[in-house]
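[Structure tokenization] protein backbone as discrete codes

[Encoding] learned vocabulary of local backbone shapes

[Begin record] amino acids and matching fold tokens:

___
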Amino acid sequence: MNVPHVYAVTAMCLELCGFGLSDREIMDFTDSVFRKRKEFFAALLRLINLLPDSWRIARKRNIGDHEKRVRDGSAACDRFEVSDGKIEYCISKCMHVEVFESYGIRSLCRISVSRTGMSAPA
């Protein structure tokens, strides 16, 4: 999560709400706008998965991402454990969700919250 991007998407959603668009119309619009970016990252992940050292790349990226989230305060984890072959974590607070809630547009945030943690669609 990139904090400036969260605010940019929040502002975009608020503008679209101001134009009277429904949640579905706003979701469809954002899907369209960010389609190429999402496809690029999906292709990049497929490429990384082909590499013989993909686990080390994913491990390093997840650890670095966690450290960044702790530093910038964008997410809080109740648990973050790294062991051989796996990384486990439980996000207890996500500022992305908090920002959308504070502006009254929680329904437009794609992060879902459950008793076992948070998730986002792939």
Helices lie at 3-18, 23-33, 35-50, 54-72, 95-102. DSSP finds five helices and four strands in the chain. The chain has a mean pLDDT of 87. The two ends are 14 Å apart (CA to CA).
